[in-house]
């Protein structure tokens, strides 16, 4: 679902979002604050054979994404713009249980995740620069510790940028959970157990420079003010994820260029990486 | 790193990521790696910003930080010189497989089409495809148009374009270029008709 914030709705939401957050009742199981992200790791260039690749860890959730393309799209009508095809898969060891019944739920879950990922990413690529081409995004959830969709969106966008594809911006995503319908408390970046216990879950993806909201998914029951607060938390979390994505993209180039300078310099003292 | 754009005079050499606003639209022109969004110029890729002040208004471009570990060509655009292999021919056209774009190999070959009227510049209706190229030949061509969903349309109507490598029909040895329309088999001395590309002249040595 793509949501573009129109001016009137934007103003109303602004009024709601300026309210202060509710006071926390109980501590989270991993000791984090309500508005604290899990341990976040973003790396690009992990798969040299792919056109672009990225690896994202958010807490215990580990996601890997590879980009192949742009390549010729076979069997379709001539298109003056490119196509983005997203495929999400779960590894065999992604979940704690090896319950065979989980395989069937995984099939519908992967289809839904692929559709959401496609909705979040396709607006960020300048597809008119790639006529007749197909860009394949292959994402794999290596371990699902909660918040797989936000990690997939951030990982996919970082991989697209690493593939040197022309983008309108980097898409960063973050999730939030509302544990109790009545309290209005919001937990940022929920773990798997917090997601299961929550009465409502929200995932928001954003391109901060353009104030875009390519993906906004909310399910469950919650008060409107709590949903607005959850959206505000998620957008703040997404801004932090966006910062890490930028650092990872630019750091890879800086270490490569400093390695080239060192090899050209010959037998000089090796200085520590910046 | 803040999301505020660096000041205009200090733009050159700074790092940019996709979506970063570099300048206002009237102040500069989009170069490679920069696109226009609303009233501003934003970077399209992650890399180093360069500001070319030699033209008026100055041209902003972003170049990628590192070369890819396995360089693969972008899909061909109109005007690119492509290296193709002939797959099959019929009296009207030759089906090609485009292998390289401007000398850089494609990750996966894409389809190309050489029509009879695009083989050479003169007497375009009198062309015999069988005497222009044969299946298995390697051909240097230029992209004419994006064509249809299956193939790009290419042309060899130029002296530098045409067959660059072919094997003899009799014994499979490599044919040598003889003239613009003939190749010679070194073993049997048989001549075979092709639309031959002019071989590149060797670099002249200063006397």
UniProtKB/TrEMBL annotation, chain A:
Gene3D superfamilies: GHMP Kinase, N-terminal domain
Alphabetic keyword roster: Cytoplasm, Exosome, Nucleus, RNA-binding, rRNA processing
InterPro entries per UniProt: ExoRNase_PH_dom1, ExoRNase_PH_dom2_sf, PNPase/RNase_PH_dom_sf, Ribosomal_Su5_D2-typ_SF, RNase_PH
Membrane-spanning parts: none
One Pfam family it belongs to: RNase_PH
Family that this chain belongs to: Belongs to the RNase PH family.
Protein name (Swiss-Prot/TrEMBL): Exoribonuclease phosphorolytic domain-containing protein
Organism expressing this protein natively: Emiliania huxleyi (strain CCMP1516)
Lineage: Eukaryota, Haptista, Haptophyta, Prymnesiophyceae, Isochrysidales
From TrEMBL, chain B:
Membrane-crossing segments per the record: none
Exosome complex component CSL4 C-terminal domain: residues covered: 111-146
InterPro entries reported for this sequence: Csl4 (IPR039771), EXOSC1_C (IPR019495), NA-bd_OB-fold (IPR012340)
Cellular localization per UniProt: Nucleus, Nucleolus
This protein's UniProt keywords: Cytoplasm, Exosome
CC per GO annotation: cytoplasm; nuclear exosome (RNase complex); nucleolus
Any one Gene Ontology molecular-function term assigned to this protein's record: RNA binding
One Pfam family this sequence matches: EXOSC1
One GO term of the biological process aspect: RNA processing
Database matches in SUPFAM superfamilies: Nucleic acid-binding proteins
Name by which UniProt lists this protein: Exosome complex component CSL4 C-terminal domain-containing protein
Organism: Emiliania huxleyi (strain CCMP1516)
